[in-house]
Amino acid sequence: MPNHAAMTSEAPRAPERSFLSIRSLTKSFGPFQALKSIDLEIGEGEFVCFLGPSGCGKTTLLRAIAGLDRQTGGSIMLRGKDVSNAPPSQRDFGIVFQSYALFPNLTVADNVGYGLVNQKKPRDMIIARVSELLALVGLPDQASKYPAQLSGGQQQRVALARALATSPGLLLLDEPLSALDARVRLRLREEIRALQRRLGVTTIMVTHDQEEALSMAERIVVMNHGVIEQVGTPEEVYARPATAFVADFVGRMTFLSGVMEGATLVRVGDQALRVAEAPGFSAGQKVELGLRPEAVRLVEGAGENRLSMRITELEYLGSFVRATLEGEGASPLTLLADLPFNVMQDRAYAPGQAVIAELPASALRIFSART
Fold first, then answer.
1. Cα separation of 291 and 276, whole Å?
2. I need a labelling partner for 324 at 20 to 30 A (CA). Which of 46, 128, 146, 211 fits?
3. pLDDT of 260-312, one tens digit each?
4. Distance CA 362, CA 348 (A)
5. All residues at 6 or more sequence positions from 324 whose CB lies less than 8 Å from its CB, including other chains
6. Environment class of 264 (CB within 10 Å of its CB; exposed 0-12, middle 13-18, buried 19+)
């Protein structure tokens, strides 16, 4: 059985200049261990997303970094300084919560300037800074309004401006867009990323939305059951998932159960499929093959990794159509194939139609069989 390292296509690149260093971090709530020996390096100016399902530990990790929930064990270094036991006020961060957490009895300007008032900054400096930030987040004319007079997207912009007011070295975003409707979420996603690039502030965002993480992050930390499954760029995590969990959680993946027959040959039902590489796997070992629907090709004629199948269902999804393909034989396979809409128009595929599906060896990812 290959170890986790063997399944990882490549080790995650360490940032050139470490801003945040986490070592052997654990967090327990009674007998439940929410974080299990987390090790992570985040570079200065990076935009990193913690991605995973509910209960995976991503928010717990964020709160431990902020000092809002003290870790059970391990260390947190910020700019080379050990802040493991430091209170939140000594950790140089701004935070934006999912619920915005604005003060309803304060105006927008007073909400944004709240941290500066606590720091006893001069009044004229606070006014200038608030004005600058409201212009930065696209709300220059909303200073005198109260949160209840704003839309959800506007409230989230105010929360972001408040988090940036004290010029923190670290910006923490805890599912900041999940309460917004799809169109506003998309617009704010673009604005937050552009703002982060402009300011160069080191940013960590927690999300369960894979599309959000793929479109915004420079690196993604995929978490599950209190451990890190993979750290990598969006392209690495999507195209070269380290584990079956990552492959299944990030994007859509068809899994096929099989047995290794040789160095790069896998027996799946009645079919022998060639994979490009299978490091750490040996003949006779049970495995799972993963394949993205967009990698499946509908072709003509026989050949390696080509299967006779039939279209059983077509699902229109805008720019592409997702086809469900059923194989033939004693152990039929089921595949998903994403077909560009122009291909659908040109070839007029229909349910019941017989097709030849090619599964490119380079697109087949191999994992240990899950129990």
1. 13
2. 211
3. 998 899 999 888 999 998 888 999 999 999 999 999 999 999 899 999 999 99
4. 28
5. 311, 312, 313, 314, 315, 334, 335, 336
6. middle
